């Protein structure tokens, strides 16, 4: 039974910690949502709670995967016996910080502005060189989500700096 070096597990552990922190922050924000008196029985919290639950499930699967990696078997997160990867670790930390900035800006800048900038930034990290496509996709997704939440589901989203 071969044990992977602790340094090669660091990016996966950081991803696990970031996922748990995001899930906890999202759940905390969800539980703080006001519950309108005239609402359906599930209320406005059901979708965000499902997202939180999905994040916690992902974290649980990461724990299982990390434990399997300790047995020497092939793991999803840690293919092969790779040395410590500084770039991956910095990417996880950067994405975590970017997500934290999004949570901070969400109420202040509003849903539309903060979500469009957040998505455009993430897409730039994962799809470099596709600036127009990234911007159009981020704007399109944000507009579609705004229409879905405000017009179809009657959810009040933070207005922020923009007049809608």
Approximate helicity band: 55-70%
How many whole angstroms does the radius of gyration measure?
A: 19 Å
Mean pLDDT: 80
How does the helix and strand content classify structurally? mainly alpha
* Assembly state (oligomeric): single chain
In whole angstroms, the N-to-C terminal distance is: 59 Å
The helix/strand order is HHHHH
Topology at a glance:
Layout: H1 6-31, H2 46-70, H3 86-109, H4 111-126, H5 131-152
Helix pairs in contact: 1-2, 1-3, 3-4, 4-5
Concise overview:
The protein is mostly helical and 164 residues long. It has five helices and no strands.
Model description:
The protein has 164 residues and is an all-alpha fold. The protein has two domains: 1-84; 106-164, no CATH class. Helices cover 69% and strands 0% of the residues. It has five helices and no strands. 15% of the residues are buried. The model has no long low-confidence stretch (mean pLDDT 80).
Keywords:
164 residues; single chain; 5 helices; 0% strand; 2 domains; mainly alpha
